[in-house]
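Q: Hi! First time doing this. I have a protein sequence and I read that you can turn it into a structure. Is that right? Here it is:
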Amino acid sequence: MKIHAYTSFTFCYLNRARVLAKTLRQQHPDWVIWAVIVDCPPAGFEFDLSKEDFDRVITVEMLLGELTNPWLFGHDIVEACTAVKAHALQHIMAQPEVEKVFYFDPDIAVFNSMGEVVDLLDHYNIVVTPHQVEPELANENQAIIDNEICSLQTGIFNLGFLAVNKSPEAQKFVQWWADRLFSFCHDRTDLGLFVDQKWCNLIPCFFEGVKVLRNPGYNVASWNLSKRKMAYDENGQAQINNQPLRFFHFTKLGPTGDVMTKRYARDNMEIHELWAWYCQEVANATDPLIPNGWWYYGIYSDGSAIEKSSRVLYRNKNNLAKHLPQLSNPFNR
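A: Yes, that's right. Below is the predicted 3D structure, encoded as structure tokens:
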């Protein structure tokens, strides 16, 4: 198959990834869907691909080999799941049958065909979506802070979605992105970094054939709901500002997401109903054998939690593992 899609997650996000795969499969049953798993399963749980809506699996070990443990130790869970995205994209693009690749964050659900983007990739090498496509009103300071200033801090484009073709220019971009994420995929807004996302502010500067997709039906989320209204047309199709709802990004599911959705969806009951639907879908896809907050790489071998400060110290000491061989697997304790 020429079109492939993938998402990156740990097992505590498998429930969300299942909803993504299910909804994407409903729209595009002929696409090849990959699961990029940055984790090892908890005791008693088996990830059985034959029972999932995914077609293929990539593990972090497949991408990094013997570097897996020392590299992962220098990243927290969000940094790790985003840092592998470019390497996984390289792996998928290396498959001979692939012509176009789509990335979706696991907390996305797809509601209409992505055929428009498939067609765009005949003319563009890279397709990205901005967090916002309309400015907030000058007197709405809270919305400016929550949305526009947040975008300035974390990235103009939301990298919960990305699409590329297999052109030399797209491959050039992916190699550059992989190089940067291997060493600099960190949550350090004080240094101008926000995991994989801030790097992509540079995409239109460095690469040709970039399509900034401003259609409001794509990547709908709390950060743009102040300017996007959901309704249903006479055929029952979900619409955003009179455009088909392509996919919704259910970011920060839980109390934070609830607050932001209520703040910006306001009286748009269709959004609140969609949020409730997604919560139920995630609940239905949750496996009781996966403990809440599970991440195999979040703990030492003795079961104690790894502090973020320890990860930062380890990655900042470039020669630590070289001079202390026992730290080549820093998870041992």
